[in-house]
Specification:
With 376 residues, this protein is α/β, with parallel strands linked by helices. 44% of the residues lie in helices and 14% in strands. The chain has 13 helices and seven strands. Strands 3-2-1-4-5-7-6 form a seven-stranded mixed sheet, sandwiched between helices.
């Protein structure tokens, strides 16, 4: 859901900015992301009652291997697990990452923000989006990519999301961006979409279908709502061929990624490719785009690097975040349990960097597939 696609980061402004952010008015339409410390504190928990955030965080943790949870428990309760995750984590995402919750390939000299936009434009170009087309974004988060791709391609995009808090925030941002006529949200489970067969001219997913408890079932639903002869493109979170399930370091990184990102499991690239074929798609091309990215995709999360432009992502920036969250929770501005959420998101960042360095994980296994003109 944007995938986050998911993509986790715990970040913070420099100390003077924390004070000014707490006192500043809501962001304008030109700078819509909620970047202030007070916005972060008030947003933790999403639609969960503030007094229930602590217990929700504990329940979420208990789904995962790091806390003794089993994969089958996560799969059978995926809707509850993923909803709790995004209620708890969305304000952290938006505070640190902006409106588009995903990673990107990156050129040398290119900013993180520029790379994220290019990553979204690449999808639009691969799908051949043109004005007048009706497009579906599966697991759209708060709609950052949806709005960017709608502006870039002049298409109408429907964002599918099963989290009420993210939809309310995305609807607000659509209004601020002046895109209410071309962009809309539908609250539904992507395993059971409320659309007729052959509805959309194109479908994409950005780091979102990794939340599916059954990837074949998810791809079959996408196949069903896509018009014959049209295309589906996605960036998937996957374990690569370098992953060894008998290697303890590999297993630890995978468990941290699952815990910090609301995932029932992380599938391999081969499993995703096989699932697409089982769902009925023709594979046009597929590739792990992380394999030849000039700048490592996980660089923004790497605390060994220092960046003025990405100060919030540095080790010192994260230290300030932890201190800020603890303080706001102590003075009862942030709900009890906020620091707990911050901690498991930190674990996620560590797992993602470890997985990236060992080349056992990718957040950008890309594929372009087609629904045949004649199908059964």
């Amino acid at each position: 859901m944007g995938r986050f696609p998911t993509s986790i980061i715990i970040t913070t402004p420099v100390l003077p900015d924390i004070v000014s952010a707490c006192l500043s008015p809501p962001p304008s339409s030109s700078e819509m992301s909620k970047s202030g410390a007070l916005d972060l504190a008030l947003g933790v928990g999403g639609k969960i009652k503030k007094e229930d955030v602590q217990s929700a965080a504990q329940q979420y943790e208990n789904y995962h291997a790091s806390y003794g949870g089993e994969e089958e428990l996560r799969k059978s309760n995926y809707s509850d697990m993923v909803n709790k995750y995004y209620d708890l984590a969305t304000s952290f995402y938006e505070f640190g990452w902006g409106e588009s919750f995903h990673f990107a390939t990156r050129w040398k000299g290119e900013s993180l923000r520029e790379s994220i936009k290019r990553h979204e434009h690449f999808l639009a170009l691969q799908l051949g989006l043109k004005p007048g087309m009706k497009v579906l974004d599966v697991g759209c988060g708060i709609g950052g990519p949806l709005r960017e791709i709608a502006r870039f391609s002049s298409t109408s995009i429907t964002g599918l999301n099963n989290n009420e808090y993210q939809i309310s925030r995305g609807t607000e941002l659509n209004h601020l961006a002046g895109l209410t006529k071309s962009c809309e949200f539908v609250k539904a489970d992507f395993m059971k979409m409320p659309f007729s067969d052959d509805t959309f001219d194109a479908v994409y997913a950005i780091e979102a279908t990794c939340h599916a408890p059954d990837v074949v079932g998810c791809y079959k639903e996408i196949y069903r709502v896509l018009k014959p002869g049209q295309y589906f493109a996605a960036y998937e979170w996957c374990m690569t061929d370098h992953y060894n399930p008998s290697n303890e370091s590999h297993k630890k990184a995978k468990a941290e990624i699952e815990l910090g990102n609301g995932l029932p499991d992380v599938r391999t690239t081969r499993q995703c490719l096989d699932a697409l074929k089982l769902a009925g798609f023709e594979v046009i091309w597929e590739k792990d785009l992380a394999s030849d990215s000039p700048v490592p995709w996980y660089l923004p999360l790497d605390t060994s690097r220092f960046s003025i432009t990405s100060f919030r992502l540095t080790a010192f920036g994260r230290f300030i975040t932890r201190t800020m969250v603890k303080t706001l929770e102590f003075v009862r501005i942030a709900p009890p349990g906020s620091n707990r959420v911050s901690s498991f998101l930190e674990k996620a960042a560590e797992g993602l960097v470890a997985g990236g360095r060992m080349e056992i994980f990718t957040p950008m296994y890309f594929f372009l597939v087609r629904k045949p003109l004649s199908y059964h």
